[in-house]
Amino acid sequence: MGRYVARRLLQMIPVFIGSTLLIFCMMYALPGDPVRAMMGDQAYDPAVVASIKKDLGLDQPLLQQYVNYMTGLFQGDFGTQIASKRPIADIILDAFPVTIRLTIFAFTFVTLVGIGLGVIAGLRPDTLRDRGLLTLTLVLVSMPSFVLGFLLQYLLAFKWSVTTPTVTDSTDFAQLVLPATVLASLSLAYVARLTRTSIAENLRSDYMRTAVAKGLPRRRVVGVHLMRNSLIPVVTFLGIEVGNLMTGAIVTEGIFNVRGIGVEIYEALSRREGATVVGIASLMVLIYLAASLIVDLLYAVLDPRIRYA
Amino acid sequence: MRGARSAKWVAGAIVVALAATACGGSGDGEGKSKGSGPAGYVSIDVGEPQKPLVPADTNESNGSYVIQSLFTQLLDFDSKGEIVYTNAESVTSDDSKTWTVKLKKGWKFHNGEEVTSKSYIDAWNWYANIKNNQQNSFWFQDIKGYDDVHPEKGEPKAKAMSGLKAVDDHTFTIELKYKMPYFNYKLGYTTWAPLPKVFYDDPKAFGQKPVGNGPYKFEKWDHKKLIQVKAWDEYQGPNKAKNKGVQFKNYTTVEAAYKDVVSGNLDMIRQVGPTDLPKYKQDLGDGAIEQPYAALQSLHPAFYSKTFKGIDPKVLQGLSMAIDRDTITKTVLNNTRTPAKGFTPPGVKGYQNLDTDVFTYNPTKAKQLIKEGGGVPGNKFTVQYNTDGGHKEWVTAVCESIRKATGVDCVGDPKPDFATDLEARDNDQVKGMYRGGWVADYPVNANFMKELYHTTAEANNGRFSNKEIDGLMNKADNANSLEDSVKAFQEVEKKLVEHMPAIPLWYYRINGGHGKNVDNVNVDFHGDLEVWAVTTK
Amino acid sequence: MPDKTVEKKVEALPGDTVSTAGVVVADAGPAPDKARSLWSDAWHDLRRNPLFLVSAVLIVFLLVMSAWPGLFTSASPRDADLAKHYLGKPNWGHFFAPDWLGYDVQGRSIYARVVHGARASITVGVGVTLAVTVLGTVIGMIAGYFGGWTDTLLSRLTDIFLGIPFLLGALVVLNSFNDRTVWVVIMALAFLGWTQIARVARGAVITIKQADYVVAAKALGASTSRILFRHILPNALAPIIVVATIALGGYIAAEATLSFLGVGLGDTAVSWGGDVARGREQLRIAPHTLIIPSVMVSITVLSFLMFGDAVRNALDPKLR
């Protein structure tokens, strides 16, 4: 197990470097110069632009810039923003907790409601209840989050005035309900469908028949035997989903005025604050990599057939 | 106190507000309590300044709002665009080349340091120095010796501009490189603010916690949430604060800010968003503010492009007459603009009523003019704009108006963001026209012509070039008095109608508002709310 | 986002597939000699699946709409009349008339825009899916068949692309194009989206590679390309098709999302996502400008998802 983890961690290094380099290159290839953009469309002085770029090292070749950036990153330095001159670490620290709160909220929602619905449907496959839930999840999946977001915003906030259209205080969980629901909807539908399929399949398996034949109480059969085996693919999915929820926040945060990394990265992108974009993206890549490692390890724990040497 | 802020971010900022773009704005107004902060304070929606709070490094509207409350420069303007002396006793010149500044005595910075000639001269020298990378450094380029501290390339040759000389503690002279009859008007821009000695110890720290000489004293900056300033009792200027302090609150969307104004959590909003515009007058009653200010939006042909190279001005006149400005401002733009009737907006010295029908919708004449002028090559052109600024709808509407009236096809050429848009303009890659916005830096008509259509003007991205116009402008610049200069520029404006360096579309209007807790909310010449004059009820 | 819409079970393998080869075998589908019956069985199933029939009808309808929008409306999606129609409300009784679904902020017929907008969405959806399938299958097959260093290299490459958040990547890539035509959007999405199929293809090929008939073909001296295209590809196709059909709906949603964020199709293109973004400002005074194109996006995505779901059920032997 230890060796396996070590090997996986080693494998992560080239992946991490590759992903960040790719994002770095893409940012670099973008038209538009962040320093020039700062000057706006009234008169400006090109000499000042050149001088600022020189001071920031933005006049160096791409690879050199990447090496400089990575060196800083490994020393815990995310760099500073071009316009505000604030450390990017500060900006991330401000924005990250907001997104994490939103993500955790959505994630809890996905797990509880998704698995719940899946179990309800899966235990009675092909009944009306099952069909109904399947259709509902299909409808949820087919609504891109911005569609669902606006629909709920329109109905709940403007039409019925149940909630405020946007979040004014991101520490108030009551206000986060709406954005978290929208963020969660897609994954929730997947989790429900996945759980349902998995449970329906395992219901017919031999070990279930054995368990029932042994005369075990139904609660135990379902709660222990069925659930443990059926949840393996769900857990895998959930693990990977953490990362997806975080990027999904770009849209949701924008609609509901939540100031997390989604909004931050979108703004940084349009201002060409390359270091900010790469910094946040690197964190996302790291979270993704960590999540997939954890998922694989969980896999081994849950499924005794799998052993990592 | 208001100094001019540059148009760029108006083009950007106001419209970002207007657009309520997918993820625009900044901050979610966190940390705001019920009511509006400490007793006697007023609050306004002003987002996170883009840069540290140094006067010469700020040119976008959020930052300049804060800078204006913390710093006072030599002079300012009233709502008619006339000079009002603030820190200066007088600014005079006999020959428009050497200017003498007399400071009022007894003025102090918030830390008790006296404001002297040196406070100004040292600050201006620091601002202008290329090594300090100040965004507005070019504002000092008219001063003699600027090229020594700010060479095109390489290290500065001197530390101070030779044109600045202190006569005594409260008098100094500014010698310019050339005559400039309206130079004193330029001094109203926030960039000309003085700095205390503590600044030079650590400019970086100063930018986070500035010490100024303005009506308000800096209190705190909670990044992306709030900036708070407190009225300064010892302030001696005419714009002494009539409230106890100001909170500049950051909102991600104008909708959220607007809701807070209606519910009383916020006192003032600078611009109501499009979703709320149809009914904000009902909601706010007397609190609704609607007022034009000195800013203009235009379409600028790229005179180097295939389409508009050597184009007959008649064609441009025709295109101008094919735009139904009245309907578009009333519908798509929700009355946030007033149709333009010339190259200079009202509220600016030298604004005049041009006797022409070029800016009036007339499809028949438009068609005829375009035909006479030889038509648009390919019968098609593009209008470049940035999608992150809320320009998409009006560009589309203008294009459709032209297409319907004349049959000339017109399509938008969107750039995903302002950075890309500017790069294409700088590198002469505009394929047809581009949209431009300009807010008065100083309320003189020269600002709307010299800086936009002179062959050497930095912001002349359409590369319009006409020897006759250049000559007239140079002559107007060399006039002996401001009045003569303004008059000469009025003649230039009349000439511009014949040459059409751009198609003026409309003047900006501020559509803001305030809640029931405050009163006396006025707008200055470039559309900023005057926070110092606001009173609480 | 498309990466989510992929049925995870198909590729619910941990990153280190070697150690879980057993799982792959279980999932990889058809035993060789059943290959033919798999497809005919599937078709048999599909014909009787109401979900499939409904979605197929809807898809045909959408395809016709995108190919010949003129059949549905004579109004132009560009013609605007601000003076008369600014934000005109829908006239529900006037079926298929220009004012049926009302007018948008420019005074253009929303019905005409909805009809003409189908082409962009469908072309992007189908185009990306085809591109992704080809690219992913080729990379996955090469990695799976040759193994060793090639595999390590390609697998890490897949990991790298998988590590980049899809939406973020698409935002950055599309930002760098000024003229974002349908083809640019297709290429950008394909550039970021091929990983899923590559993984599935690789897994399937690794399993099939060990099958007797492949070993036999090799022993008989068949060329590599013959083995790959005659023996392996046809048998690896089922899981790939499943993933691809389900992903299709996701790509349509992705295009709409990107257009909504302002980096989708260019300005002159009529696109549902763009119209939703535009309608956002009128949400309070004229909600129909936002809701109608949103509903179209959803219906389209739903049709393709149902279709994909039906195909998966038919092709997945475990569910039979």
UniProtKB/TrEMBL annotation, chain A:
Keyword Membrane among record annotations: yes
TM regions (residue ranges): 12-30, 102-121, 133-156, 176-195, 277-302
Topology of the protein relative to the lipid bilayer: Multi-pass membrane protein
Entries under Pfam families matching the protein: BPD_transp_1, BPD_transp_1_N
Keyword Transmembrane helix recorded: yes
Domain ABC transmembrane type-1: from-to ranges: 96-299
CDD domains xref list: TM_PBP2
Localization of this protein: Cell membrane
SUPFAM superfamilies the record matches: MetI-like
Coarse class of the protein's main subcellular location: membrane
Keywords: Cell membrane, Membrane, Transmembrane, Transmembrane helix, Transport
InterPro entries: BPD_transp_1_N, MetI-like, MetI-like_sf
Record-stated family: Belongs to the binding-protein-dependent transport system permease family.
Protein's recorded name: ABC transporter permease
Origin species: Streptomyces djakartensis
TrEMBL record, chain B:
Signal peptide from the UniProt entry: 1-22
Keywords from the UniProt entry: Signal
TM stretches of this protein: none
Residues in Solute-binding protein family domain copies: 87-458
Cited CDD domains: PBP2_NikA_DppA_OppA_like
Cited SUPFAM superfamilies: Periplasmic binding protein-like II (SSF53850)
Protein known as: Peptide ABC transporter substrate-binding protein
Domain of life the protein comes from: Bacteria
TrEMBL record, chain C:
Keyword Amino-acid biosynthesis: no
Location, primary (coarse class): membrane
Transmembrane portions of the chain: 51-71, 122-148, 160-177, 183-201, 236-254, 290-311
Occurrences of domain ABC transmembrane type-1 (ranges): 118-308
Domain of life according to the entry: Bacteria
Annotated CDD domains: TM_PBP2
Coiled-coil annotated residue ranges, if any: none
Topology in membrane: Multi-pass membrane protein
Cellular compartment(s): Cell membrane
Keywords: Cell membrane, Membrane, Transmembrane, Transmembrane helix, Transport
UniProt xrefs under Pfam families: BPD_transp_1, OppC_N
PANTHER family on file: ABC TRANSPORTER PERMEASE PROTEIN, OLIGOPEPTIDE TRANSPORT SYSTEM PERMEASE PROTEIN APPC
Family: Belongs to the binding-protein-dependent transport system permease family.
Protein name: Peptide ABC transporter permease
Phylogenetic placement of the source organism: Bacteria, Bacillati, Actinomycetota, Actinomycetes, Kitasatosporales
